[in-house]
Specification:
Layout (H helix, E strand, L loop, with lengths): L6 E4 L5 H12 L4 H13 L8 E4 L5 E11 L5 E12 L8 H15 L4 E3 L7 H9 L15
Parallel strand pairs: 4-5
Antiparallel strand pairs: 1-2, 2-3, 3-4
Length: 150
């Protein structure tokens, strides 16, 4: 498959099943509740700006996606920062540049909305994902993610 046969477009509500299916193939676990919440925010909240994208093959099959949030005042941040919180490429389509295409289009889209910086969180032990983000010019931030066990 050539990159030229892949089309990147804004995510639609009808993409829910495809996104959940790709995520399940990647993680080998189903998380429909996670995506129900994300899709509800994305398509049922009036003040939520669309930032999430999907990649389709030439037949219109969704083969990848990227989801994020544009900060609208959270943490005192207004529209200059966004977060990339979920990305997935169907394992049958990996290593074809689709993840990079999604990241590039996602960043271009966010730039048009006035975003100047994007953040994401990666598990310290997920070397494959760390390498992917590093190859796409992400670097460790100056922020520290703090946690506390309960």
């Amino acid at each position: 498959m050539e990159k030229s046969t892949i089309k990147i477009r804004l995510m639609q509500a009808e993409d829910y099943d495809a996104v959940v299916g790709i995520d399940e193939k990647v993680l080998k676990a189903s998380r429909p509740e996670y995506y129900e919440t994300k899709f509800e925010k994305l398509f049922k909240t009036k003040d939520y700006l669309p930032t999430s994208l999907v990649a389709e093959d030439k037949d219109g099959t969704v083969v990848g996606f990227v989801m994020g949030v544009l900060y609208m005042g959270e943490y005192g941040i207004y529209r200059e920062e966004a977060t990339l919180d979920t990305i997935g490429v169907d394992p049958d389509y990996e290593r074809k540049g689709i993840g990079k295409m999604l990241i590039d289009e996602f960043l271009d889209h966010l730039k048009t909305l006035g975003v100047q910086k994007i953040n994401t969180i990666v598990d310290w032990n997920d070397s494959k994902l760390i390498h992917f983000f590093s190859a796409n010019q992400f670097s460790p931030s100056k922020s520290i993610n703090l946690e506390r066990s309960l």
